[in-house]
Amino acid sequence: MAQVHVIALGGSLLRPEEEESREMWFEQLKQMLIHLEGLGCRVGIVVGGGAPAREGIDIARNHVSDERRLDEIGIAATRINATIIQQVLSQIGIDVAPEIPHSTEKGAELLQEHAVVCMGGTLPGHTTDAVAVGLAAEAGASGCIIATNVSYVYDSDPRENPDAIHFESLTMSELGDICGVGEPLAAGASAVVDPVAVQRAMDDSLGLAIVDGRDIERLENAILGQRFKGTLVTP
Fold it and tell me: Residue 80 CB: number of other CB atoms within 10 A?
């Protein structure tokens, strides 16, 4: 049976203001997925909304008061980003599912048929971290990789606190103490790991690995269970 890996790919990794770095990142991402397909792996990629989601929500916020409706805007942005990744991989001949599933159940079903499945958000109140953890549970993966734009989980925001302490390993309970557990984030808000995702990982006894997704080598090492620079979270 093929080994299944699920990645929550932060939308910030596709930011257009980092165009030169992004092009190199795309080339490395493609090579990694070619390698994983060659190893017989199945890979689910759940892509975040990033700047387009936040901008869309900001535009609508003065006119739309319902957080669930605002979340629908963010979900639409995640699906655009997922389609970008899907088409890039399809262009180079990777066996990527031809549709963007709107549920983790459908994503898991497609992972039985294709080497790679790309998807975005599913329901209001669930970030793509939570979707990725849900997909990992549905598809029979042992854990989920959270690929973001920070190197570790910290005890506070390192962008605001230069003395923030990073962690190379945590238990899921310790991660919950830092990020929270079970409470949905506001539309457009972000945390190093979504509290709903932490709760789902606890419920399904899944491990997490948090890595800086801008460094594809770190990402691949985490996927393959090798030593990596980042935070390993055990159930």
Answer: 16
| Closest of 174, 184, 234, 176 to residue 209, by C-alpha | 234
- Looking at residue 184, its pLDDT comes to 64
Residue type for position 155: D
| E strand or H helix that includes residue 61 | helix 50-61
- For residue 145, what are the CA distances in angstroms to 20, 54, 61, 200, 211? 25, 23, 31, 14, 7
Nearest to 153 by CA among 179, 181, 117: 179
pLDDT mean across residues, the chain: 91
Token pair recorded at residue 173: 């309970």
Render pLDDT for 154-175 as a digit per residue (tens, 0 to 9). Answer: 988 888 888 889 999 999 999 9
What are 215-219's contacts with CB under 8 Å, separation 24+?
216/25, 216/28, 216/29, 216/31, 216/32, 217/28, 219/7, 219/32, 219/145, 219/147
Give per-residue pLDDT as tens, 5-44: 999 999 988 876 666 778 899 999 999 999 999 999 999 9
Closest by CA to 169, choosing from 205, 215, 222, 129, is 222
Residue 130: half-sphere exposure toward Cβ, Cα within 13 Å: 24
167: nearest Cα among 191, 147, 151: 151
Consecutive H or E run containing 153: strand 153-154
Confidence of residue 112 (pLDDT cuts 50, 70, 90): very high
